[in-house]
């Protein structure tokens, strides 16, 4: 059972929830040989627009209504690319600028060998512009340590980047606070946990959306259909929210306060202070593994 933490300091109530994939899309990331044989860039982007109900075969590339391109990973009768992620994967059409993220795509795939295709490396890279200080503050050791800390917590929250949404649907109606002046325009049960750090509650969707310039209050489903939006909400929490802790996870790492402080900020009310040492140890073990992959040190104060 994965523990879902409340996504902001505004809520003092912690729910425990398991998470699950929206559609059967949890498949292994491409191997190195598969990646080498799969085209990721092309000379032009003159692909046809996706049409609902039109049959597509594996390898077909379409332009979706949002302007992004998708490639069919399985034959399908015209399923929506941003919903049926088992049948489609994002496709980089045209030359792609090299990533300046301190984690390479090969390292990312090593960290998440069984990740859901929804959680793309490119989606994370595209989201980084929202918080330019993330993994770019301090020494190379600190930069790598922050990336490892973020991805370790994300891995714990999503079962290794497999799970997109909260499984326990009975919790869904609980995440609507009608005392807010804006209410729950997308519906009472629309603000359940989504994304790499499980954004939940209407007020958190509004706060994250306002910060990112995306109307998530009216369109919460974007967090489970657009990889860049999903990653941005995770980075929003990491860089701006203290949760039940005393500082943001970003500040905890760049100020050398330790990985344990990031756990406290994300799920401290449920896991820290001896409440769930197994979950804390799981996060620490993943953090250690990721720092080894990135060739950096863990620093002190690993536990909360």
Automatic annotation (TrEMBL):
Listed CDD domains = chitinase_GH19
Q: Which domain of life is it from?
A: Bacteria
Q: Does the keyword Disulfide bond apply?
A: yes
Q: Which SMART domains match?
A: ChtBD3
Q: Is the Disulfide bond keyword given for this protein?
A: yes
Task: List membrane-spanning regions.
Answer: none
List residues of the Chitin-binding type-3 domain: 47-91
Supply the alphabetized keyword list: Disulfide bond, Plant defense, Signal
Q: Which residues form the signal peptide?
A: 1-22
Query: Which Pfam family is one of this chain's hits?
Result: Glyco_hydro_19
This protein is called what?
A: Chitinase
Native organism:
Streptomyces varsoviensis
**Phylogenetic lineage:** Bacteria, Bacillati, Actinomycetota, Actinomycetes, Kitasatosporales
